[in-house]
Amino acid sequence: MLLWCSIFVLFCSSEVEAQGLEHWKEQFRQQKNLEVLERIEAVQKIGEIDSLEASEFLAKIIEDRSEKTSIIESAIRLVALHRHSVGLQAVVESGLTILPIRSYWVVRDCWDRDLSQGESDYIAEKGILRVPVLDVESQNILLSIALRADNSAAGESAAKILGNRKIPPHNQALIVDLIRMHRVESSKKKLGKLFRVNDAKLQVAVLQALQQLEADDQSRTFHRALKSKHWTVRACAVDIFGDTHDPEVIKILLPMLKDEFSEVQVSTVQALRKIGGKEVAEALVKQIGKHEGRVLDDICDALVWLTGQDYGPSEVSWTSWWDREGKDAEIRGISREEYERIREESSESTTGTYYGLRVLSRFVTFIVDISGSMEEPYEVDTVKLPGGRIQRGGTGVDEGSSGKTRKREKMAKIEVARRELLRVLDGIPDGTQFNIIAFESTFTPWRPGLVEMEDGIRSDAMDYVRSLGPRGMTNVYDTLVSALDDPEVNTIYFLSDGAPTMGKIVEPGGILAAIRARNQQRKVKIHTIGFHLDPAASQLMRLLAEENHGTFVER
């Protein structure tokens, strides 16, 4: 009896919904000649009914060339919520040709999400093939949506329009990405020819696709890429040679350490580290005195990873060790656990550091968490040195022959963060380009971009740090993106005491994926410092550092 009652209720509900849809459809038709504000209610009511029939009616609105732009925009927003393929089809086949360019953002915004299976199937099998008949901006929108299609037919459709002259290079790059994602093996030769087009974005996409497709017959293309006019292409080629882990390519990579762009030099150091071995270690030891800033920092890191030794940026110490022991040592590389242990031990005897992390870069941004939780008390060690001088750091309580007395005291986490940042700012050499970003629910850069350190700037920066007080929540993603948006920065120190609670992306996996993709080419080094983190926040901070060439320090 209960089952039949449930069926009866569902039947009545569907009947009411159907009657409501017909009512609002008829009202929309009758109001055709009225002002937009008088007609918008009918469109919204139709959109509230999530059925195929409602989607089909909204699709007809989108396809109507005589309709007002604002009505079409409303229909697009509503039909996108239904996730029926008929809505996306109407947008691709009619909406993008009817709407003015100023309204394209509506389409981008509405399909900035995963596609339903029906939407994926339509885009993969039919939608992509319409790219050549659209204007350039519409092509870009459609291809961006296509990258989310979960259907292997998307790759085959992309292969059919690859190289079409009606599609400009930056949109061809998205087509190449589709071919790479869906591994269309038959496109290798065509991709090789497309590399000849002098466009950085397209050439990078081609190289990545050829690597994914294991196109061994395109070796000439990879070698040609090392001489490209675009640094992004040269850096990508270097990455690919490093991924081979083949000692034979060392002689090909070493000259790239002289590239005019530091980004290519950084890529070269990291590629050589992947290959490893005695030849690489010896070459990097010889390079220490020839570089500075971020490149020198990466060489130091690479040598630690390869040798298990840490002599920082000292050319004399590294050369002495190499002559004394290195030439006969087994250069086998070390694990991350060993690396972190060595860096922790070295931090206690290394000057010019920030929470034990070297500060060698000349283009650096310090990010400091000022969320409400930074007001919480934090226990630190203070060491009373001979003469009464106080040094903060260390653990436990100890009195030794050195005359040092160690004890613990409590202070707000924000105060600990301020003191450490003030100490570092006081020691940064003149000429360093730097910025500070304080963040909580939102983020507040001290300056719009990097500024050059000198006495007046140093004083202003330290006054700004002293003024920082805790408030708000924790917006990790938007803050990191703002720092990465500065094209000059190559090293970031990111300090936080909690998990993300605000921002465009809050879920840790989503943050990691988005930052990883955004930082793929530039390879900005992101160091992370965590205060009293819970396990989930600790994991996020650790992976942010590991996936972005940095080191995680937990306090």
Detailed description of the structure:
With 555 residues, the chain is α/β, with parallel strands linked by helices. Among the domains are: 226-349, Leucine-rich Repeat Variant (Alpha Horseshoe), CATH 1.25.10; 353-377 and 412-554, Rossmann fold (3-Layer(aba) Sandwich), CATH 3.40.50. Helices cover 53% and strands 10% of the residues. The protein has helices at residues 2-30, 36-47, 52-62, 69-82, 85-98, 104-110, 117-125, 136-146, 153-161, 169-181, 188-194, 200-212, 219-225, 231-243, 250-253, 262-275, 278-287, 293-307, 315-324, 336-347, 413-427, 455-467, 476-484, 508-518, 535-546, and strands at 353-354, 357-358, 363-369, 377-384, 390-392, 405-412, 433-439, 443-445, 451-452, 491-496, 525-530, 552-554. Helix 8 (136-146) packs parallel to helix 10 (169-181), helix 9 runs antiparallel to helix 10 and helix 16 (262-275) runs parallel beside helix 18. 39% of the residues are buried. The model is unreliable at 1-16 and 383-402 (pLDDT under 50).
Report the average pLDDT across residues: 91
Q: Do you know the CATH topology of one domain? A: Rossmann fold
The CATH superfamily of one domain is known as: von Willebrand factor, type A domain
Principal-axis shape equals globular
Helix content: 40-55%
Q: What gap, in angstroms, lies between the N and C termini?
A: 64 Å
Q: In terms of per-residue confidence, which ranges show pLDDT below 50 for 5 or more consecutive residues? A: 1-16, 383-402
Continuous helix count? 25
CATH class assignment of one domain = Alpha Beta
Biggest sheet, open or closed, and with what strands and sense?
Answer: 7 strands, mixed
Total count of strands: 12
Tell me the radius of gyration.
29 Å
Strand content: 5-15%
Second CATH tier, the architecture of one domain = 3-Layer(aba) Sandwich
Q: What structural class should be given to the helix and strand makeup? A: alpha/beta
